[in-house]
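Long-time lurker, finally posting.

We've been working with AMP-binding protein (Rheinheimera tangshanensis) and I want a structural starting point before designing mutants. I don't trust myself to interpret raw outputs, so I'm hoping someone here can both generate the structure tokens and explain anything notable. Sequence follows.
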Amino acid sequence: MSYFWNLDLTDAASVAFTDESGRHLSYADVNKEVDLFSALLPSNRSLVLLKVRNDIASVIAYLACLRNNHPLIMVDSDLNDGLLDKLYQTYQPNLIIEGLKIHVTHQRQLQLAPELAVMLSTSGSTGSPKLVRLSKENLQQNANSIVVYLGLTDNEVAITTMPLHYSFGLSILNSHLTAGAKIVLTSSSLISKEFWHLVQGESVTSLSGVPYIFQMLKKMRYERFNTSSVRYLTQAGGRLDNETLNYFYQQCSIKNQKLYVMYGQTEATARISYLPCERLADKLGSIGIPIPGGELTIRDIDNGLVTEPHVEGELFYKGPNVMLGYAESLSDLSFGDHNAGVLKTGDLGYQDNDGFFYITGRSKRFIKIYGLRVSLDAVDNILADNGLSAAATGIDDKLFIFIEGHRQDDFLQHVAALISATLKININSIAVHCVDLIPRMVNGKVNGKALSDLMG
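Top reply, 14 upvotes:
Generated this for you. Predicted structure of AMP-binding protein:
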């Protein structure tokens, strides 16, 4: 199998990256930079913690680690110090890389599975030391599938609208490198003039985002922007409301652009299914069909296969992009493939008469805040660590926190700010309320149903 980090399937003279400073690097330039950085890495296989920004230096380090078989944990370069320390204490990486600076922490030989390549947080906010273990094959197979169903060519120009340590953002990088295309690297927000100057100046051909990004573009009136170079839009990271979906369907029709609604999980290296753009109108709300090389099924509570349409069960996915497994300790990094290409998604749903899939809910305690998956257990742990008798619940794009006893408004705002800063989620998505008592079951555990009822 050919791998995108070898940069050997492309026209060496074509531009691979452009950044905010106007710097342009060809594939030949990138290859040279990767070789130079590779020479600085140790010869012994080492575990790397890579602090990632949307810049050329982070990409060079990422490609060099993959090329030299150094497994890497990818985290936000601005990750909270407490969470970063927890990751370090849990996994004891040999190297910490930020930009192109390498800090050697120790030289002990760690037990790392031969196929282990990349580890990403199970939470988009990297608020948990629980990681998804991905192989080189996972990365490349998922990139290959994306290239096929989006019809990517070396004429594409993508732009970063999400962090590269987030599986959706990373998949855009991987798939466009596979296609020999160009990527514009920026940390500028979609609401900034700088971002739209790059879109126009670099003739960007695609825009991608989570629901929050599309909702923001709708508020900004997407029709006002000059997007004449844009060929298609892709949306994933959670369900987009029908009103916004209809708006973009209409705008894309007017602008002669395609709109792809997609579904995925970090556990599947980002992508599981997509809704062909020509079926958007008659399959509104569907997550579509499996990506090339993948298979989706519905299973009942006894793990039996559900073949009848419109019967709800849990979604199972099978494909070569399914993770090796989870990691919660250093010893877990020595394990091989625990899943054998099968993923129990934790999402409930059904398929219709035409084989298109729909999601109806989640069977796990996760919600998505503007596309970032947030563990309600992680929120509960932060609250408990701060001495609070409290519990969290929520729905997509809204986290509810209930605290026992009477508290002043400024204290409630302080709690919201704490969770926002720790997990890097928008403070406006957090609602904190007081209750006399947290509802509990007879065994002392929080009564999740009663807690959810408090949301009103």
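Before you design anything, note these points.
The radius of gyration is 22 Å.
The longest helix spans residues 136-150.
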